[in-house]
Amino acid sequence: MDVLSDVIASLRSGRPFANREDRAGTWHTPFAPFAGAGFHIVLGGSCELLMPAGPSLVLNIGDVVLTPHGTQHTLRDHGRTDADPGGPTSLLCGAYRLDRTRSHPLLSALPDVIHLRAQFGRHPALRSAVSLLGDELEDPGQGSSAALSTLLDLLLVYILRAWLKDEADRGAPGWSAALADPAVGAALGAMHESPARAWTVEDLGRQANLSRAAFARRFTALVGEPPLTYLTWWRLSVAARLLKEGDASLESVAQHVGYGSRYAFANAFKREHGISPGRYRLTHAGERHPGRRCPHHHPPGTGAAA
């Protein structure tokens, strides 16, 4: 898989949840912090988003907001008063459960709020997903549950893809620059595609069409750590997911992530996670079938509207 797909797969837990919220007059709806990511899409009207710190954001029709870290926030009507109530506002609100025990640095580096403003002709795939999701919630039919789950998965990919592109376009440092960089992006893709391969810095440099030294400097500058340090972290993150989600033997997991023996794998895993692979599997066994409902949002028609 590519890097973004791997990152999402490593974090996803349970099924996403979404509902349509229609508001009018003077209202506010608080959203408590939770271990996941929430989103809001303005289908009609406008509103304000308030965070515990920083200025409020005015959200207009077509705007998309993601709170990647499940940060506490509030939505309210846009600058109205009891004497001057606003018009109706239609929102598409939802959330994703995420396993943050081994959060990928790409997700850790995301801001508390990602705000993608509606712009004609920009991010057409995201706009199409929003339109399809709104239609499905407005008029569900046969297969709606499967359609919603798929569309919500697509929505998360398209939101993150759009944000990474916007960040790269404005020359921001960090993971957006790393993935957009042809050399570092190629090396990251190779590591994620074949984590079990006995990669050397020289091998990865060839993937990037750079000398060993030039590649190492470039990778470290953009990703924030040396290539083999990142590779080890990623291998052991993949191993942790395999241990939680399946029943493969420790030997099989070790081979899948590039360790020649169960013992070498166990030692490396314990250094990284502070616990043996077997104990880790036992500890996380109950997480294989998480609940489906996400606590981030109120059921339709409820909440602290005032």
Largest sheet: 5 strands, antiparallel
Q: How would you describe the oligomerization state of the chains in this entry?
A: single chain
Let me know the number of strands.
Answer: 9
User: Helix/strand-derived class?
Assistant: alpha+beta
User: Mean pLDDT across all residues, rounded?
Assistant: 87
Helical content class: 40-55%
Rg over alpha carbons: 22 Å
Q: Give the strand line-up of the largest sheet.
A: 1-8-3-6-9
Beta-strand proportion: 15-25%
What are the low-pLDDT stretches, counting only 5+ consecutive residues below 50? 289-306
Gap between N and C termini, in Å?
46 Å
Characterize the overall form: globular
Structure description:
- It is a single chain.
- The strands form 2 sheets. This protein has a 5-stranded antiparallel beta sheet, with helices on one face. A 4-stranded antiparallel beta sheet has the order 2-7-4-5, with no helix packed on it.
- β4 and β5 (57-60) form a beta hairpin.
- The protein has helices at 3-11, 105-108, 124-138, 144-169, 175-180, 182-193, 201-207, 212-223, 227-245, 250-256, 262-273, 277-283, and strands at residues 17-23, 28-31, 36-44, 46-50, 57-60, 64-67, 73-77, 89-97, 114-116.
- It is built from 12 helices and 9 strands.
- It has 306 residues and is α+β, with helices and mostly antiparallel strands.
- The protein is 44% helix and 16% strand.
- α3 (124-138) runs antiparallel to α4, α9 packs across α11 and α10 (250-256) crosses α11.
